[in-house]
Amino acid sequence: MPTIVVLDTSLSMARVADPSATPPATYLELAQRGLDGWLKHLEHKFKLEHVAFLTCSSQCHLGCSFTRDVSEIRQKLFQVEPEDASLIIMCAREIAALVHDVWGASVPVNIILVTDGGLGMGQFSLSHLLMEEGMELGAPFPLPFPGRWSVVLLTPTESHIFKAAQPIYQRFMEQSGLGGEVVGLDRELTAQSVEKVFADLSQTHYQHYVGTLHFGDKLSSPITLCPPPSKYKKVQDFDFVEAVISDDLDIKGFLTLADVASPPVVSRHLILPWSGQMQREEDGRTPTLCVFLHGAMKVESLCALVQVASDWFGIIFSCPDVKKKSSLMLSLFEPGSQPVPWLGNLRKLGPVSDLNVTNQNPFPVRGMSKPSYSANPVVWTKQVNLHSDVQKILRSARKLPDKTKHFYEELNRLKRAALSLGFHELLEAMASTLERECAVLPPTSEPDCHLHLTHAAQELKSSRVFDLDYVIQPVGSRHGK
């Protein structure tokens, strides 16, 4: 996933950190050396990784936007000079704008912040700025995109500086909405200890995913996914879902792209053949399952349903990069057997040979219950909708007793809707309206009309009307023919 490197360039970074070095090294020089080793790791193993570079003091400056050219990032890194006071929270605004312009709000982003552990002084200290009154600087918390922080403090974990700074930076990450980790040096501050902390960071978060793609019992191929898939975590109403992609990806069958349409996915990954640490020139001429699947599915407009864990599925398909080039992509659904509603339970999909000419199209999968389209739901999004329903009841009331059935149906419909919405005042207002309507009835009206209106008004004022299951019944006529 894309990575943003934020380097603290405050004046405290110009302090001498390692007097034993020749010449003595400052905090900024040690940070540059550690980041250079991290960039070498990306250059060697993650050539497709997008990296951006920011510097932060009292102002945040964009050194280089997202690029795959590591040499450009390295050039900007070694041109950095110490500036003025530290104001780490200011970088959040620049990060949010940069990610929004390039990736939008759905792509996860890694953020690496490198600092000496200084928190600032007085009202501009990080601890003060994280308070409610300090948010006046306009930090866009929570950040409007997913991702994680990796805060590297250039100080030993046993030092009082690290112990004082760690909880503050933890609160900083929590308020940003991303979470992450704060790491320090496992021994005294030297160039070697700084290089080690960045090497550990690379081993933890920047490692290749290597797995095996299986197609039937006899065809398989080692593959890698770019970017590497991360662990899926989601808190639901009464459950916590956690899933990890397996090392074995098993193709279960094929579907047409028209049937799959545009399903909801949690991540997309480029599938590449894997042949060890380095890709050799002759690998391009070696037969591989990835090339076979890519060519076949592109011609036939198909996608492969693949199982990536015990209860986790995705699809593999040919995705065009430019006009004449395309790649093999993996889109991961949400964990579960029914991640795509119109495909139904993925575990119950069968071979196409089970269908015959008399069968209907299997998609979309129809549920067991059949909804009634004759239902007339109550929608009161506008005042005119409510006014129309009240007028409908009054029109039926003026035609009583001929419209007795329709009058009580509409009255009970309005009662249920009012109770469901908690609109109890409507029942009182409707009762008053029916009483007023009864009072202005013309002398030529039917006797039963007065009887039904009075009965309905009394029912709406009674306590039993607040029972959702209670149905107002018509009153018996006293003037039978």
Automatic annotation (TrEMBL):
Keywords: Nucleus
Location in or out of the cell: Nucleus
Record-annotated Integrator complex subunit 14 C-terminal domain positions: 378-477
GO CC, any one term: integrator complex
Gene Ontology annotations of biological process type: snRNA 3'-end processing
Signal peptide residues on this chain, from the entry's feature table: none
Residue intervals passing through the bilayer: none
Domain Integrator complex subunit 14 beta-barrel: 206-336
PANTHER family in alphabetical order: INTEGRATOR COMPLEX SUBUNIT 14, PTHR13532
Protein name: Integrator complex subunit 14
Species assigned in the record: Tigriopus californicus
